[in-house]
Amino acid sequence: MIARLGTAARYLCLASLVANAGMADAQPWQPRDFEPPPDLPVAAGLTDEDAAAMRSLIAAQIAAMRAGDWSRAFALASPDLQAQYGTPAALGKDVIAHYAPLPAVAHLAFIDIVTFRGLPTYRVDLGDTGGGVATAYYLVRRLDDGSLRIAGCVLVRARSS
Fold it and tell me: In angstroms, rounded to a whole number, what is the distance separating the alpha carbons of residues 130 and 46?
């Protein structure tokens, strides 16, 4: 009987862990990538025009997400990111589940451009209407035709004040 109770307790604990894992996903957002190191090198070889184009690209994708225009947000993603998601709807579902601050952005503060995972990456503070701030690392890829597309985004938990 005690052995059975031990097994039952283990299954109950496992079920609780599984249920709690699901609850964590239901929270406003859960970072799913490790925070990039603080000492990333400054991106080299970018012009002022490149930086302006990157800012426009990032702002346009966030605006599309805020409007629920997942087709437009998907179109601004790099081909490899589009292949990862497959459809605009899948991108939207993942953003809502794991990148919740993006559609709720009230203001952006572009910090600097670093190199992360071999790509120029814009570090951007995202502010919401409640005063919360998260930092996004937007990886940007230049395509063969010279256009820029978003190749990924890593969100970092809001800083404590």
Answer: 34
